[in-house]
Amino acid sequence: MRRIGAPATALVMLAACSSTTEQGTVGVERSQFLLVSSAEMDKSAAAAYQQVIQEQAPKGNVNKDPKQVERVRAIAARIIPQTAVFRKDAPGWKWEVNVLTSPEINAWCMPGGKIAFYTGILEKLELTDDEIAAVMGHEISHALREHGRERASQQLATSIGASAVGAVLGIGQAGTDLAGVVGQVTYLLPYSRIHETEADRMGVELAARAGYDPRAAIVLWQKMAKISGGGGPPALLSTHPSNEDRMKDLAGFSQRVLPLYEEARLKK
To answer: pTM (2 decimals)?
Structure first.
């Protein structure tokens, strides 16, 4: 593997000194390592999302229950405008929300606002609207914070080495490798603990601003932990198991955004 020269190293370091979101009330603040372009992530995520939908649609697994779909999309419609507090451009993303028939307890939001909820999480956990908002706020926060883009950048930097500089410049072999890397990290690789914590904190604020009780996040993760007792954990717990620290963190930040929830309720 070739070593990255001094000018290239400086370019990489500059790329690391940036953040994708405003702090919001919860105060999420951290410099992020971002070599991959946001446009490339969004393009690859949109293609990956359409592939999922096209694969599941012929099987009758896309938006099978109209009432379920209406419910999830109505909650999304209230949360999406609130994303402006973290990113002014986010409400204008090309958002998509679909419900996939699957027993898996999972939900995700790809870069650029491509959301999927599985029937397994809705039905097995018997989610209330507040709890759906907690899940949705959490997953949307991953997209707002561009955690997928961050993971792609980290993977390029460690596995491609000097070619990662080509990704910054949009040239060289890295340009060819990038599409595969970006497609992989949009939904296959797990998030880190710091990513999950950021999504927890931003998620309760999004829910609160949309008029959903942020304390529902605590109940949600308690349900997740309980259902995981009979085998492997749900996908949403795979890298960040529910524990006392998480509950304490959620409890503290739910209280911090409670005034936002009360204010939103008065406006309804």
So the answer is: 0.84
Strand ranges for the chain from DSSP E? 96-100, 107-110, 114-118
The position carrying tokens 């029937």 is 119
Residue of 40, 131, 139, 198 marked active site: 139
Q: Which helix (H) or strand (E) holds 254?
A: helix 244-267
Span 156-198, pLDDT tens digits: 777 655 454 444 444 344 444 555 555 565 555 567 788 899 9
Determine the residue type at 98.
N
What count of residues does the chain have?
A: 268
**CA torsion through residues 195, 127, 137, 215, sign:** negative
- Counting beta carbons within 10 angstroms of the beta carbon of residue 8, is it exposed (0 to 12), middle (13 to 18) or buried (19 or more)? middle
Catalytic residue at 139? yes
Three-state secondary structure of 26-78:
CCCCCCECCCCCHHHHHHHHHHHHHHHHHHHHHHCCECCCHHHHHHHHHHHHH
> Cα dist. 130→143, 175, 261 in Å?
20, 42, 11
